[in-house]
UniProtKB/TrEMBL annotation, chains A, B, C:
GO terms for molecular function: glucuronate isomerase activity. Pathway: Carbohydrate metabolism; pentose and glucuronate interconversion. It comes from the Bacteria. Gene3D superfamilies: Metal-dependent hydrolases, uronate isomerase, domain 2, chain A. It catalyses: D-glucuronate = D-fructuronate. Belongs to the metallo-dependent hydrolases superfamily. Uronate isomerase family. Keywords: Isomerase. GO terms for biological process: D-galacturonate catabolic process; D-glucuronate catabolic process. It holds the Pfam family UxaC. InterPro entries: Metal_Hydrolase, Uronate_isomerase. It comes from Cognatishimia maritima. This is Uronate isomerase. The keyword Isomerase applies. Its EC number is 5.3.1.12.
């Protein structure tokens, strides 16, 4: 057994025993996965995964960046180069490289997720090292050949109740259609992600606008046509089960311009020669437009901000985006969200879930805002911070101002399907540990903590994302 | 018993027993309340409080904002609308609404304060719920009819040694006069708050300036007249026992302009058409002028910054200020305070107590500044942060740089008279817990910790606010 | 015994016993001191220290600022005034003043360092107080008269393996030469600190440029000459054992201008009338130039940013720099480092160690950057933050993103030779405490933690600073 039954619980015996009891309340609850990046094709085709490295290493930017930071090249880890320069495609060799260097991940979440995945999925009972690399590679490769490791089987085995993918607003949703039409009972729903047409800095922005027009029959180079096209696409996503939109912006700026200002701004945007300031304004205006559409169609908004994408030009040129070189930066929500909040912040139809990579705003900005505006909910600790201490700090800093009920539960935010149970389990344990301390210090009754842990593990996510009913 | 005798103490048995011993040293010490917002009329007229909701719910913006954030309207909670639209005035109904939703406050300070108030003042021994709402309402309403719950009786029962109110510099201090002239021995003193005439953005600024002139016989539309008027008003406040001024500014900017620049700036301010920059400069200059007057008359300065007031325009329009929609924002002290500190930072006559809502400045700015300049003291964790974890973080982050003796002790900062003992008790317990960890980890001797806890609970506040003698 | 054998370890018995076992692994390891400010003359001349106050008080800005902040003048503590006004030069009187006020340092690192120094070096077994001041003064003064307290003897006794001083790039390194030529085996190496000629705001900048020319025979008022001069000086430092450069800049800005832009910029700098923006750009360009030279000669770069120097004009005028009035301020690394990182961030020859005084960047900026770029390492918690809780926060916030192996080990950064063992011991204990919690919560195996603690205490510093071999 590599996994201690009390892992992540405080060492103090009294507190630990409370944490254990709380954990028992929720250990068997289904997983609600309202935000993530799994590939819907997996669930549509239900094909077997093949190579352990391809499944567990190459697509994981957490693993890539750590190894790169200690001097191992992306190409050695199987990442395809953009210019076709040779890359390591030997899965076993990649696996060995990771195993030899796996000590680098000590005390990081990758280590915790991997241990959990190896033991619970593949019965491997020791942390990855150079000496056990070949054996674990074989064990995993063999397992992947069985039906029990097909995507739908994993979904069922993981006790997932619902999983949302993240999909371009231009996506044809064919995989979601396949799943929907199948006899399989899994609930795989899309999320409406329109960044390619709301952010003028996204690559191919004007082509994306044109494509949006083609898909909807709207003239998306006019302001009204653009809004109409979004309405149609959102409707389609809702038909396939979507309950949310997702917006990844450099800043949290929102705007609330008059219709004529919007038209004039969009005309400049369409020229492809807008200023940085105009682009920022357009992104901000589109957030408010998305909020307005949410009043009509009920989609929950998610806003993720503060990542400086592709910080290393060299890595971006050689390998493209999502290679571990997105770096957080300082953000401001107080002034930035005000236009949207002043327009619709008290409308009970709006639900806006906000995520940050700048922990200094938890206590100063996000908790106070969420503890005032009815529309706002705090998204969970995210990306660099969905780690034991990161999630603990999130609770310690936000709870005393915003309580538990202004938070949106956990989401795993991952493209790594096998790690989903590990991530939920870790989050649940950290919440148990947090609540156990509350109980041990007589800040909350244990009966109340038992109610709260069920909320944090299950109900809050369902409510925040309006997932109550399978449509 | 709802209140555990070890509440807020660490669970580790060794540490907990140290905390208990430290707490015994200070549990009976009088309460020093050098900064707060109780109504002096209470102590002057000594009339009974009437309705439980009116006393414990409606004026409390902590309670309002949390309930509003989960979808309950201010009007349902008894808050009067500005346009006279109907509002809930049935105290029992309001109390029930709070009780039904009281689980929302789990692990927030409101919960801790309310539990303490209910048990110690009214003998109620379970947290508020829908099912006990009517009973607790009756219990409280009945108690309020007795003399033991009149304001002066509460003051005496709470073992308050001194309580400062916060008063506009235009206030006639009649209630303070009444208290002073009475046979009652309570010490209720005013605090000089001149924001209405130092902040050109405060509503009715020019009228306030005129009123200041009427009260003092000075021409307050001239620079010298303005300063002279402040001097006279400060003198009056001192006669009524004031030992401090209080300044609530959007930023910590201070300025140190020449007299001719001041005159020119003030002339522009008086036109009512000054720029934002000029207004900011005027606020900054007035802080330095107040510091200079403090050198003469000995009033301790308090500076509270970083709140974006009335963030929701809708709430402000319907209900006015102080409705839970003041949101912190990022602040900077290092450059902002420099002009004032360079002018008077080493003058032993000056005492400047600084408060922040941006925790990221504790370690980076305020502790280093307070650990260098003789005039500076750190105010306690404030507003959103006078909570168990908020106060713990304050000690953990500031102590190693600034020590204990550059801090200003606790103040309750509240308008909620019944909660005052709860707030002091919570702060004292968190300090006991912090010190107990210091002792348990051999970072401080227990005899020393016993000295320190008395300082933190009692002497530091008296010294920082120059309350040593009852004039 | 004043020093508890379990000091700084968590109170929980299980965790504490793990911490003890880990500590045993490293308690006897040699001290690696790759960054500090001891005086090389001490090791060259090996003369006895004389006065306890002169050794332990007057040069220590941590002690000065705390006492000043509570109202004691620098002059009372023996600091020489710039205008020759009288200063206290009676060591015993200074020592008494410190002792009387030593309670002010409770729970600060000065207290911990002093206790450790007094007990382990001088056999004094109680914290400094007014009543034991004379006795401890005599004990120390007497010890300083013996050969066992000469600088080289202390170096040997402290089990120092290597100590780096920090030296102006204009320094003649004569003391290092003396040490090198001596029979003594101590390894005292210089560090190349070129701020006087890379920062146009440093006092006497143009004279320093001229001096650099004189030393190297280069025309240092031309861009090529300037670069050539640096290359020659760096070469000389390397000959005396240097493995690193050190850069103390107000911000982390780096630039990567074209050669012609560099020439034009430097021409303006040389006029002495450059704008603030040009000066900032020049500092930023010089960092990138230094990085380029490091590719050639292998010197490790250190970058310390975010200190507002000499915040109090009065103190600077009366006593000069380094008087405890350097105050941290907000910094940004993400955008600032990008030009340098884009130029050379993936070059395996570059090693850049970054330090911050703004803790809010640990998690948001520095850990993510260090966990991506091969050249970057996190310097340890620094200056205001090399304290028990400061170092704990550093590990808690950086480890989950950057792991242990992207950090640069500990350095004591001190000019206080007697306190060096105390500082290393404190850092090692805090790391033991951190790792013990990891083990107790089953986040890391104890065997792994035992490996990690050796890395943190010894190997990481050697590797990060390329100190592997004594040249």
């Amino acid at each position: 057994m590599m996994l201690d039954q009390d892992r992540f619980f405080p060492a103090d015996p009294t507190t630990r025993s409370i944490a254990r009891r709380l954990y028992k309340e929720i250990a068997e609850l289904p997983l609600v996965c309202p935000h993530g990046h799994t590939n819907p094709a997996w669930f549509a085709t239900n094909e077997k995964f093949t190579d352990p490295a391809e499944l567990l290493v190459t697509p994981d930017h957490y693993i890539l960046r750590m190894l790169v930071s200690l001097g191992i090249d992306h190409a050695m880890l199987g990442v395809a180069t953009k210019d076709g320069a040779p890359t390591n495609i030997d899965g076993r060799q990649i696996w060995r490289l990771v195993a030899e260097n796996f000590y680098l991940f000590r005390s990081t979440p990758v280590r915790h997720w991997m241990d959990h995945t190896l033991e619970t999925l593949f019965g491997i009972d020791a942390p990855l090292t150079a000496s056990n690399a070949d054996k674990s590679y074989d064990t995993i490769a063999e397992a992947l050949q069985t039906d029990a490791f097909r995507p739908r089987a994993l979904y069922d085995r993981f006790n997932i109740e619902v999983i949302a993918t993240t999909d371009s607003c231009l996506d044809d949703l064919q995989h979601h259609a396949t799943v929907k039409d199948s006899a399989w009972k899994g609930r795989v729903i899309p999320t409406y992600r329109p960044d390619c047409v709301t952010d003028p800095d996204s690559p191919g922005f004007l082509q994306s606008l044109a494509a949006l027009g083609d898909l909807t029959g709207e003239d998306t180079f006019t302001w009204q046509g653009l809004l109409g096209a979004h309405r149609k696409r959102r409707k389609l996503f809702i038909e396939f089960g979507a309950t949310a939109t997702d917006h990844g912006h450099p800043t949290a700026l929102t705007c609330d311009l008059s219709p004529s200002e919007c038209k004039a701004l969009f005309a400049d945007i369409c020229t492809g020669r807008a200023t940085s300031e105009q682009k920022e304004q357009f992104r901000g205006q589109m957030l408010t437009e998305m909020a307005r559409m949410s009043l009509e169609d009920g989609l929950v908004m998610q806003l993720h901000v503060g990542s400086v994408r592709n910080h290393s030009t060299e890595i971006f040129k050689r390998f493209g985006p999502d290679m571990g070189f997105d770096i957080p930066s300082r953000v401001n929500f107080v002034h930035a969200l005000r236009p949207l909040l002043n327009a619709h912040g008290h409308d009970p139809r709006l639900s806006l879930i906000v995520f940050t990579l700048d922990e200094s705003v938890y206590g100063r900005e996000l908790a106070p805002l969420a503890a005032a505006y009815p529309c706002l909910r705090l998204g969970p600790a995210w990306w660099f911070f969905d780690s034991p201490d990161g999630m603990r700090r999130y609770r310690e800093i936000t709870t005393e101002t915003a309580g538990y009920y202004n938070t949106a539960g956990f989401n795993d935010d991952t493209r790594a399907l096998p790690s989903i149970p590990a991530r939920h389990d870790l989050a649940r344990r950290i919440d148990c540990a947090f609540l156990a301390r509350q109980v041990a210090e007589a800040r909350l009754g244990e009966d109340e903590a038992a109610e709260v842990i069920v909320e944090l593990s299950y109900h809050l996510a369902k409510r925040a994302y309006r997932l109550g009913e399978n449509p």
